[in-house]
């Protein structure tokens, strides 16, 4: 908008934008005119739309009635409603003014010590009045949301505690993170903590079915279950997957296979075959097989995840073998996170499995 205003000279007619009817975008159907990601479209607008986090919502609603909101710390797995809850809460507290009363900083912003100090300081210095434009009272403070706070360095976190205290007259903080253990103690002790639970299967399925019916998505039986299995309690992941599948199939109905294809799950026959090849006790065969598997383009992280379940629930392994293999899985997973080579890690893991099957040490 600003760029538009800058370029606008009085007296000249602004050029029509692509959106006007005189200049229609080709292939625009009514439904796809303004494509918004479904995660944003179906983000809860008010607190009562946040599902499954009943305790959190109840406590926050109580503190709404009472103007001294404490500093907040939301933690829990991804896609469980943390960001949505604080946005909905701000909307309920501040009404229409909510945009001017919150400062949102997330991991993509520069969050060194100096930036936090400067941004928060200038934001905290703006006074917040106790009435809304429509005359209704509203709390005289602003909210600073630090999303993904666990990715902040310890130094930046330490700097934050002083800032938090200095700004406490006019500002409340809401820290959001996945791992509370990565937040330093002096910060956790200054906040009320709220744990967000992984969403239950029923909740996920209700929400996905609701979205599917709103968007006229045709799904075959078990598709929603497949989406849920893949998304591991992360509603954002589930909604995104459903939307990708819908984009792929359009008017046709989505099948379980589509979900498997899109989500990059490795077909079980490959996983079972890894075990079979390991049983052969032949390094050459294993090497060839792993090579083929990597040509298929599956990520080693996914293969390892599925192998883990296969090994743990496989009764042909005894506890000792399972524990050795799982330990190796953990090591390889860590190396992958650190940027290790996918092929080498999978080979290393498979060699351990082979050794455990063919030459177990007692
Ligand atoms: N408890 C919930 N109730 C309703 N929708 C949810 C809930 N949790 C997640 N979602 C959906 O998932 C998307 C991502 O949620 P978000 O609040 O950003 O998750 P988080 O911040 O915990 O990672 C939202 O847009 C919303 O559609
Ligand atoms: Mg979030």
From TrEMBL:
Lineage of source species: Eukaryota, Metazoa, Ecdysozoa, Arthropoda, Chelicerata
Function comment: Subunit of the replication factor C (RFC) complex which acts during elongation of primed DNA templates by DNA polymerases delta and epsilon, and is necessary for ATP-dependent loading of proliferating cell nuclear antigen (PCNA) onto primed DNA. The RFC4 subunit probably functions as a scaffold on which the other complex components can assemble.
Residue ranges annotated for the AAA+ ATPase domain, each copy included: 68-199
Keywords: Acetylation, ATP-binding, DNA replication, Nucleotide-binding, Nucleus
UniProt organism field: Oedothorax gibbosus
Entry superkingdom: Eukaryota
Disordered: annotated span: 1-36
Gene Ontology CC annotation, any one: nucleus
NCBIfam families: PRK00440.1
Cell compartment(s), UniProt: Nucleus
Protein's name according to its UniProt entry: Replication factor C subunit 4
């Amino acid at each position: 908008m600003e760029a538009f205003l800058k370029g606008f000279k009085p007296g000249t007619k602004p050029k029509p934008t692509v959106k006007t009817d005189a200049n229609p975008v080709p292939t625009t159907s009514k439904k796809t005119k303004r494509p918004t990601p479904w995660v944003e479209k179906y983000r809860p607008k008010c607190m009562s739309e946040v599902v499954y986090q009943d305790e959190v919502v109840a406590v926050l609603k109580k503190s709404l009635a009472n103007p001294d909101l404490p500093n907040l710390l939301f933690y829990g797995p991804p896609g469980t409603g943390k960001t949505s809850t604080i946005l909905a809460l701000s909307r309920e507290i501040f009404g229409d003014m909510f945009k001017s009363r919150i400062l949102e900083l997330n991991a993509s912003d520069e969050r060194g010590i100096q930036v936090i100090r400067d941004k928060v300081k200038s934001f905290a210095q703006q006074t917040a009045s106790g009435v809304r434009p429509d005359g209704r009272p509203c709390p005289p403070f602003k909210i600073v949301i630090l999303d993904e706070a666990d990715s902040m360095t310890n130094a930046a976190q330490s700097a934050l505690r002083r800032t938090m205290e200095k700004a406490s007259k006019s500002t409340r903080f809401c820290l959001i993170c996945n791992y509370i253990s990565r937040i330093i103690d002096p910060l956790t002790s200054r906040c009320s903590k709220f744990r967000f639970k992984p969403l239950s299967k029923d909740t996920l399925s209700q929400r996905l079915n609701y979205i599917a019916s709103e968007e006229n998505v045709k799904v075959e039986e078990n598709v929603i279950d497949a989406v849920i299995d893949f998304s591991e309690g992360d509603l954002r992941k589930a909604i995104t997957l459903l939307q990708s599948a819908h984009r792929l199939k359009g008017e046709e109905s989505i099948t379980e296979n589509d979900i498997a294809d899109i989500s990059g799950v490795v077909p079980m026959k490959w996983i079972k075959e890894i075990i079979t090849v390991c049983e052969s006790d032949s390094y050459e065969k294993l090497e060839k097989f792993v090579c083929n598997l990597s040509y298929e383009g599956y990520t080693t992280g996914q293969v390892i995840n599925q192998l883990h379940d296969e090994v743990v629930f496989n009764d042909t392994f005894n506890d000792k073998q399972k524990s050795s293999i799982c330990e190796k899985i953990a090591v390889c997973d860590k190396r992958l996170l650190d940027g290790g080579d996918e092929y080498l890690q999978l080979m290393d893991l498979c060699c351990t499995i082979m050794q455990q099957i063919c030459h177990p040490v007692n």
